[in-house]
Design goal:
By secondary structure, the chain is an alpha+beta fold. The chain folds into two domains: 104 residues, D-Maltodextrin-Binding Protein, domain 2, CATH 3.40.190.10; 118 residues, Periplasmic binding protein-like II (D-Maltodextrin-Binding Protein, domain 2). It contains nine helices and nine strands. Strands 1, 2, 6, 7, 8 and 9 form a six-stranded antiparallel beta sheet that branches. The two termini are 29 Å apart.
């Protein structure tokens, strides 16, 4: 629509920053006021789009089958482990995770990792299925966004699953949902302000277990504080480079 000069929407709201990057790269995004983006955590401030909530990549593991010390600190090392792994390769968040791995580790290392993981893994349709498979003991450990485990444990507090985090690699990437203003004026900006209000951010943290990105809002219970994690430094818009990832997979 942008290329054709036709816009039928005031906003573009996406659950993953890969698609946000495609919109901003196409020049369709309108700049946002500084006072709006200043509400966000410093490492999530962008001039042409606004993150809404965050999600961290995690390693859910079965607490009866795996001890924490068995889990390597590097997600790359899981390829050489004897752990049975659950994954959802067709799921968009997993593909963004692999894209981040490509950017950080290179295509050759990522391709080798995928081949090795495939030898001792079980595929699921989505990452909630991965977490449920881990809890049932079908696999030892899995790859999933944090909120699937928290949602499962909210309904089943004694579930045999806990979260582990890798360090400084794609395995602990903090991704975000985001929104872009496509038209000028107060309407799109005010809607973004509403999404960043303490009321909405608190609701999303409490009910959806998303990570609030506005300063001063508590994160969901059961998740390690972001300050204790070591996610890789990355411009999330680079995750729009998805085609090479799909070709690799």
């Amino acid at each position: 629509e942008t290329k054709a000069g036709v816009k039928r929407a005031d906003l573009f709201w996406a659950v993953d920053t890969g698609s946000i990057g495609m919109v901003t790269d196409a020049g369709a995004a309108k700049p946002l006021p500084d006072d709006l983006t200043a509400q966000l955590r410093e490492d999530f401030q962008y001039p042409s789009w606004s993150p809404v909530t965050g999600r961290v990549r995690t390693l859910p593991y079965n607490t009866e089958r795996v001890k924490p010390e068995q889990i390597p600190e590097s997600v790359m090392a899981l390829a050489d482990s004897d752990l049975k792994i659950g994954w959802a390769p067709a799921y968009s968040s997993f593909q963004s995770f692999v894209t981040a791995m490509r950017i950080l580790e290179g295509d050759t290392a990522t391709k080798s990792w995928l081949k090795s993981i495939n030898k001792h893994s079980k595929k699921y349709a989505g990452e909630l299925g991965v977490v449920m498979g881990v809890e049932r003991g079908e696999v030892d450990i899995g790859f999933a966004n944090h909120y699937y485990t928290l949602r499962l444990k909210s309904g089943k507090p004694n579930a045999n699953v806990a979260l582990a985090y890798s360090k400084s690699d794609a395995g602990c990437l903090v991704n975000a949902s985001g929104i872009v203003a496509l038209s000028d004026g107060d309407l799109p900006v005010n809607f973004i302000r509403y999404l960043l209000s303490h009321e909405v951010q608190s609701y999303l943290a409490r009910e959806a277990y998303e990570i609030p990105l506005v300063q001063g809002v508590k994160q969901p219970q059961g998740l390690a504080d972001l300050s204790t994690l070591s996610p890789p430094e990355m411009d999330l818009r680079k995750l729009a480079d998805l085609r090479p990832t799909l070709n690799l997979m």
